[in-house]
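Interim report to the steering committee. The following record documents the input for 5'-3' exoribonuclease (1079 residues).
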Amino acid sequence: MGVPAFYRWLAEKYPLVIVDVLEEEPVEIDGVKIPVDTSKPNPNNLEYDNLYLDMNGIIHPCFHPEDRPSPTTFAEVFECMFDYIDRLFVMVRPRKLLYMAIDGVAPRAKMNQQRSRRFRAAKDAADAAAEEERLREEFEREGRKLPPKENSQVFDSNVITPGTEFMAVLSVALQYYIHLRLNYDPGWKNVKVILSDANVPGEGEHKIMSYIRLQRNLPGYDPNTRHCLYGLDADLIMLALATHEVHFSILREQTVKERQREKRESLMKKFLNIWTLREYLEFEMQIPNLPFQIDFERIVDDFIFMCFFVGNDFLPHMPTLEIREGAINLLLAVYKKELRVLGGYLTDACQPNLSRVEHFIQAVGSYEDKIFQKRARLHQRQAERIKREKAGAKRGDDVEPHFQPEALVPVARFHGSRLASAPTPSPYQNGTESSKFDGNRSSRPPKFARSSSSATVGAAIVEAEENLEIDEGGNKEELKARLKEVLREKSDVFNSKNQEEDKIKLGEPGWKERYYEEKFSAKTPEEREEIRRDVVLRYTEGLCWVMRYYYEGVCSWQWFYPYHYAPFASDLKDLGQLNISFDLGSPFKPFNQLLGVFPAASAHALPVRYRELMTDPNSPIIDFYPTDFEVDMNGKRYAWQGIAKLPFIDESRLLAEVEKVEHTLTEEEAKRNSVMFDMLFVLSSHPLSESIYLLDNHCKQLSDKERIEVKERIKPELRATCSDGMNGYISPCAGDTHPPIFRSPVEGLEDILDNGVICAIYRLPDPHKHITRPPPGVIMPKKMVNLGDLKPAPVLWHEDSGRRPWESDRQNPPGSISGRHLGEASQRLIANSLQLKANGNGYRNHANTRPSSYAAAHGSPHASHSNGLMYNGHHGMMRPMTDSSHRGYNQSLNSAIPSYHSQFYGQPHDEAVISPSYSRSHLPYERDSQSSRYHPYERDIQSSRSHSAFERDSQSSGRQHARNAFHSPDLRPGYPHGPVSRAPSGATSHGAYDFYQGHVSSGPVSHPGTHRQWHGGYPPASNQSSFGGYRPPLARGDSGFIHHQARGNGFAPLHQQPPHGANRRPPPPQSGYGRNGRK
């Protein structure tokens, strides 16, 4: 599913689900960085039990980091990963379990997408290399020196795939890291750690969900377990909802647009709280006059199923629905309209009711003509606008631009690019602000002044070499910037001289017939109908497969959708007559998957005989690996959005050829190609270690293969404290369960000489039915969302005329004045028109002092804030906010806020929700209907120094709100200021390369030499490097508010146009509604 599109929709529509993460940083004493003590309470005032890491969301960013030079060795990637995990652990501080899941072999349904991505990556890399070589030649002709390309172990990110040598070494490195942290970090002392590496089949996030589902409703399981899952995929939100666990948060990075809007140099982290999303959905799905009893848990399941239509990783995109065109809003509107006619829900747990699904999707399909017609109009306008802009640009070629385009500025994001040929210093290292451009300065580094005539010859030579290096460095940065710009321009279809003709012309009569003729080669009506029926059958199979995958796990390892294109919504007919069934089958072996997803350019990651199958022109399966293939833009603008029309893998042909070469594998290659189990690590002082020791002693005389076959059930119902309620099975691992010395597999990191960690094999509990509702005994959090927090139903995209862009929730065009800048400009305009004398905050505090004739009163109707101004709904003007004290660091402008007291009116009212794109920090606070204040959950830490520093009572007003002082760092209360100190690096890694399945071999040490043992409980000094520039997220009160231009709402009273002569004053409030209670 498109991450930015779905996440952005969710954040805009349900803003209270997103909260900022308060990240504690290490302190520096006498030049020594002291790591954060993670055993102390979580500064976010919410204690989590379990932290789950979708490791591929960590591995990929560490191949292309933003805060440090691009890595050139595996060891540098591992150290970056250790820092990353450390940082996440500091934020969440799990108390019971840390689960690290790396993507293993995926089902065939996902392999098609992986294949497309990897072939596209190889093609893009080849294009970039050719373009870079052309630019290098151009620089050489101009006499501009460039540093030579450097060899790198990480030149091909396709190696982040199960079965490669990199993934095998990564598993060992993570084992070392786990041992390191369990031995030396007090916050890890009581934590169980499970590592599910690339040799365990299944996608990382789905292995995590299987663990959660199979723990639920078993003896010893705590129904109030608090889960936190880190990952970058939008489908994690749906997976978390599908567990029906209430206390669930998704930890993720802000989007690039959020980062640009908040003007941050680094991506900060956000919590997406599932319990708040459930509240929003409960309000959203209040459907009156249903002929059956409403069941909210069934509504949640239907919401998940509906979202499959707008994108998932297993089916191609349906042309009818685009998230950016309000597709989810359309699905919700149709669902609420049609549910009473359906007579029941679309799904029952993991089983869709296909007859009802057909009725629903046919109702959606009835809007196709309008959707396609509007899309065609907008596309035509966009093409004409870009054509005019390019014509204007050509006329102004001889005019020097006022500023250099951002894409040409060598900034930090290029440091992690695959196009970079060598490491480059980050802005934190060279002390410059690369995110800003000064038109009076050159982007090239300044040259040093020439030495005086008295300088020695040696000094002159050194200086000349330094100047040469500086010139080369500046040229390299310019090369990277120009390369990036050239590639971006080439990827834009509108820049192509020979643009593809749109032969389908969606929205014009006959579009469906043309679609099946062009995309499926159906020439006659009979062929179209035959193909349509099969496409609908396979697509419906896909919907059922995905639903079962989300709720039960893989129901078929072999099934996949055998077309490149999806049907239209209106094509999904006669679904109730379909008979859908699946055969489970078995997953591919890792090397077989590599053959199924890799292009020939990545064949170097496979054993020699496997490699020949991909590269030898005489190979029987050489047709699986085209070096050139068609990319169908399918109406999209950028090349990466196109569809790679690759041939589908014929499994029987592939496996037949593999069988001929599998016997040639070495012992090490055979291990990489095998299926393994999860590994469980605990400190020897953990209560569970006793069971592991007893089992290990019982199996001492068995061979490694026999030991793994033995398994003992964990019985939390007998000793709940032993495993913290975790169910499943343990087996003794191969080799030494508790090695006294653990060697470092990462160069530069020290050995663990007094190891206290014990390892075992872990297996999940036996499969059982997933109950799709919160477990008995769960304590629901107090409500965070009120009716006032909901946005009015939006205008459906295809019905929006476009004349009022603020009604369709569109972004401001580039270059327009918006956000804080617009707010400041409006303040100046209003201040000048009212002839107010401004103070430091822009206004006099007594500018709107209540006349003595006004009675003291409660809240201002329809009040809202914008950058220090409060809209006076009755007087129709803006007035400055009173100078009240801060309400609390956990409350931001868009929060659900209790009504406040004003000197003007006598009725309490809700504040209008301001700019739904803002996030509110620290949502683990509950609203007290009596005191109108927020309190943490019962399990939260009740006292916090930073919290109390913000909570002050205002004698002049019962309502407290943030003032403009938040824009000045000097006026933010409760937090120190100054340069941001760096967090500690993570530590390092796990035993030598042959430490498979958690054991240490008895062979020679791979890194001989003396190693200093840690003393005093601190990790080795080599492991205490900083995070290298991670910018920590701060409390909302500390980071300040970045105000954005408030987009209007066509349904809000302030934006509706009353009849001529009608009273424009907002209607009086209705009693019984407010922040402190519901009617």
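Residues 398-455, 805-821, 836-1079 have pLDDT under 50 and may be disordered. The committee is asked to note this result when reviewing the revised timeline.
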